[in-house]
Design a protein that fits this description.
binds pyridoxal-5'-phosphate; 9-stranded parallel β-sheet; 9 helices; 9 strands; alpha/beta; globular
Amino acid sequence: MEPDTIQTRLELVQSRISQAAENAGKRAEDISLVAVTKTRSVEEISQILECGVRDIGENYVQEALEKFGRIGDQANWHFIGHLQRNKVKQALRFANLIHSVDSLELAGEIGKRSLESQKTTDILLEVNLTGESSKTGYPLDQFEDFVEKVGSLSGIRICGLMGIGQLSSDPEDSRPFFRKLKSIYDMLPQEQQVYLSMGMTQDYEIAIEEGSNMVRIGTAIFGARF
Ligand SMILES: *Cc1c(COP(=O)(O)O)cnc(C)c1O
């Protein structure tokens, strides 16, 4: 039996992504893989970069900054965790795409800080798909209004949507939520339809079948987090 290494696990994930893409009538290249590296060491991140993965996703600003100090622009850094307004300035030092914008205040702060450094930051709007109060994301029922208000801010560019499926033992439970998110994505102005970030270790194949073009995968590549 082959040893269970980051490389072999990654290859398995990539072949499953290809198969799911085919099921959805897409090519494997149409799907971006973001390797989720929270709690993983710089050594593990270096291994994934050697395998040709460029996109990595971090959840915590402090942890990401420490890793960014050692890895820098060899990777394309995504911020996928809950972002506090007082951490925005630091997050902008490394993040090229912020997936988790779930309030007007946060979007405003990202815009303001971006303008201060004369740049425009790419963001995704996070939708609260399942309505569970413990989860992050903007509520579905007022989402149209949210998109409009965020869209009028300067210093940011809306590049699509992000959502987290149903965290249950059956990945099929996520399918209706992913389908819903895709229908909202399809209503965005054309220029905002760049990334639909949905699907994690347990449900990425279903997410791709339902129209995801960006999956965020940690455990299936690196093993369980402790
Ligand atoms: C941790 C995390 C992931 C990756 O989860 P896995 O189950 O390890 O694949 C994806 N998206 C977000 C927002 C996360 O916080």
